[in-house]
Write a structure and sequence with these properties.
The relative contact order is 0.06. It contains 22 helices and 20 strands. Strand 17 (616-619), helix 20 and strand 18 form a beta-alpha-beta unit. The strands form four sheets. Strands 1, 2, 3, 4, 5, 6, 7 and 8 form an eight-stranded mixed β-sheet that branches. It has a five-stranded mixed β-sheet with strand order 14-13-12-11-20. By secondary structure, it is an alpha+beta fold. It is globular, with a radius of gyration of 29 Å.
């Protein structure tokens, strides 16, 4: 690959590997900065001697230094390493304290709470730092809370909890990657809102967005279309209806709801077109560049500085600078420099799914699309236009396919039709939308422009809905293990390299990649086939037990769950992760036997055989029993209480078990229970 010949590519790879090493290994701060100092001295020494003894050692020293800088950069930007971070104040997780925070950003609300990202300022008068999620009970807030508001709350922080069931989305890990380690739950009685706001970039960005939205609402812009317009133009998806998001996912067009390179490209073309009247003199070119860079930066701020937005704005800013300097812009260099700069200032973006998908899609468009386009050279403009859209979308889809399946476990087969139809419509909506939003900021929207934008988005939603309605073309529940993801990308890269310039050595690399892929498949399946486990799930208000032997799952549950087992969300994620099928379903009985262990399931009847001597007792349905007496008679080694029990009764059961020194596991508190 030619791109790997660029020194900058190898420096970027070394830097990224350093970020990954620091994230997963978490070395001590003192050792990292000691090694960094040694690396700098070694780099200087090699630079001095490289002039007479060749550059190979200097190159190795450069890549080693970039790796160490990556490690140190990750540590410097990880909030939990800062002594002032609230994570080190254990007292705030033990009792309610007075917490001073500043609202940074509004998130999507859930059924019970309005949610915000907030910055901690002080805790009980002591200065502290860090980000938290603030949850304010719905219908309890008398005042609209905005970005920049300073709040004083009497409350206790709650640590992020891992998922309560196996193979679920790990929200605590997601928040940790965003440097958020705790949440705060409050209602209006616990909140004092300061009359003054912290006026930073987030405040002005939020104020501008709010002003635009209010002015559009005054023009009777329909709510559903307005929410999509705000997502398309400003990258804010908080208020889009779930069914609309589902349609965009099924149609393979959900990426257009996140502001990315496609959107920023339209902005750049539009601003460049508007500046055509300025002469191409030295001064005129500089003015154009300044206006373009300011326009892109302003758009990025309005869009909330999301990872995909920052990446796109940075990349297209370099394109604009290259054009100003009258130099041909090497797109690989642009991608590398933008990635390096972004990760230098915000290394946590590396673990953002949108950031990963954006860069992979762009790389494959640049690398693979010319190869696909060369397969057929249309002679007329219409065919050429359609062919270019197809090859671009296919290249992006090939590049992102393994990662998309790994994260989302589905593939929309009609993505190419979606892109063919929506890209012309989207280009019109983007140009019109930017114009309308700009006018909305000054409350100068001509009604016909507002109506035209609303009608365009309505048509776009209808097109997306029509494509998404063909659900038979959506492949769902696709399992993909991490090892299979890596080996899949290895095969994909070697095949494309071979296609670009076939040779015997490259064919050997392809064959080796196929063998690696097969070995990954056999390793995963061998591991699964030799596993046996029984799980008690944390299923709200119900009892759900599975017994898995290899690829086959036996389900124990009551009739209501047995009838909907295939659609059950908890079971589906478990099945996909273990490449398994639901082979049998059984009505829940009082006794379950697994690997020589006897499990007694106590139901709402409260009846139990006194001399059965089970290894484990599973308490369900808030059975009314004297647990102290039951434990003395049955003498179990472990007691489990699932989520079908009331929390109040579980506290009494826990006390009884502690008194008799029997381990107690409540799935609502500790999550699912696994028996191997």
């Amino acid at each position: 690959m030619k791109v790997l010949r660029f020194p900058l590519a190898r420096i970027t790879i070394g830097f990224v590997l350093g970020l990954l090493f620091a994230h997963y290994v978490q070395p001590s701060i003192s050792s990292v900065f000691t090694i960094l100092l040694i690396s700098i001295i070694l780099f200087g020494t090699l630079y001095f001697f490289s002039k007479s003894k060749g550059s190979i050692y200097f190159g190795i020293g450069t890549y080693l230094l970039s790796f160490i800088i990556g490690i140190s950069n990750q540590i410097v930007h990880t909030d939990s390493f800062q002594k002032s971070n609230y994570i080190h104040n254990l007292e705030i997780f033990a009792r309610p304290l007075s917490i001073s925070i500043t609202i940074r950003e509004k998130l999507k609300s859930n059924l019970f709470s309005d949610r915000y990202i907030a910055i901690v300022n002080r805790i009980d008068g002591k200065e502290q730092t860090g980000k938290i999620i603030l949850n304010i009970q719905k219908n309890s807030s008398k005042h609209a809370i905005k970005a920049g508001n300073s709040l004083l709350i009497k409350g206790m922080l709650t640590r992020n909890k891992p998922p309560n069931n196996p193979n679920q989305f790990d929200y605590s890990k997601y928040l940790k990657n965003k440097q958020i380690y705790a949440q705060l739950y409050a209602n209006v009685d616990q909140i004092k809102i300061s009359t003054e706001s912290e006026k930073n970039i987030w405040y002005y960005s939020s104020q501008l967005r709010t002003r635009i939205i209010k002015n559009l609402e005054k023009n009777n812009f329909k709510k559903s279309e307005l929410n999509v317009a705000i997502a398309l133009i400003m990258g804010q998806q908080q208020d889009i209806a779930p069914e609309i998001i589902r349609d965009y996912q099924y149609a393979g067009a959900v990426h257009i709801l996140s502001v990315s390179g496609l959107h920023i490209g339209f902005i750049l073309l539009f601003v460049t077109y508007m500046l055509q009247a300025i002469p191409n003199t030295k001064r005129g070119s500089f003015i154009k560049l300044l206006v373009i860079l300011l326009s892109l930066a302003m758009f990025g701020i309005i869009a909330g500085l999301a990872p995909s937005v920052v990446r796109s704005v940075t990349m297209f800013s370099f394109v604009a600078i290259g054009n100003h300097l009258r130099r041909s812009v090497n797109i690989y260099h642009t991608l590398l420099v933008s990635a390096l700069l972004i990760l230098l200032f915000e290394p946590s973006f590396l673990f953002d799914v949108g950031f990963q998908l954006s860069y992979i899609a762009l790389f494959f468009i640049v690398w693979l699309q010319p190869l696909l386009a060369s397969i057929w050279l249309p002679k007329n403009k219409v065919s050429n236009y359609i062919w270019n859209i197809l090859t671009v979308s296919i290249a992006a889809q090939i590049g992102t396919l393994p990662l998309s399946i790994y994260y989302f476990h589905q593939f929309p087969c009609l993505f190419f039709i979606t892109n063919l139809v929506i890209i012309p419509v989207l280009s019109f909506i983007m140009i019109l939308g930017v114009l309308v939003m700009l006018m909305a900021a000054f409350n100068l929207i001509p009604p016909f422009l507002s109506d035209l934008l609303e009608s365009s988005i309505y048509c776009l939603n209808k097109i997306i809905n029509a494509i998404a309605s063909f659900e038979q073309f959506i492949i769902q529940d696709i399992p993909l293990h991490f090892y299979f993801l890596l080996s899949g990308y290895t095969l994909l890269f070697t095949v494309i390299i071979w296609f670009k310039k076939p040779s015997f050595n490259k064919l050997i690399a392809v064959l080796i990649s196929i063998i690696i892929l097969q070995l990954s498949y056999f390793k995963i399946h061998w591991k699964i086939l030799n596993e046996q486990e029984l799980l008690v799930f944390n299923s709200k208000n119900s009892t759900l037990i599975t017994e898995r032997k290899g690829e086959h799952i036996l389900l124990y549950a009551n009739d209501s769950l047995l009838n909907t087992a295939q659609q059950n969300r908890l079971l589906k994620s478990y099945r996909i992760a273990h490449l398994s099928t639901l082979l049998q379903k059984r009505q829940l009985s009082n006794f379950i036997y697994f690997n020589g262990k006897k499990i007694f399931v106590l139901d709402s009847s409260g009846l139990y055989p006194e001399n059965s001597a089970p290894d484990i007792i599973l308490l369900t349905q808030s059975a009314k029993i004297n647990l102290d007496r039951m434990l003395q008679k049955m003498k179990p080694k472990l007691v489990i209480a699932d989520a079908s029990n009331f929390k109040t009764i579980q506290k009494k059961w826990k006390a009884s078990c502690e008194k008799q020194k029997i381990p107690f596991h409540a799935t609502g508190e500790k999550g699912f229970y696994r028996l191997n």
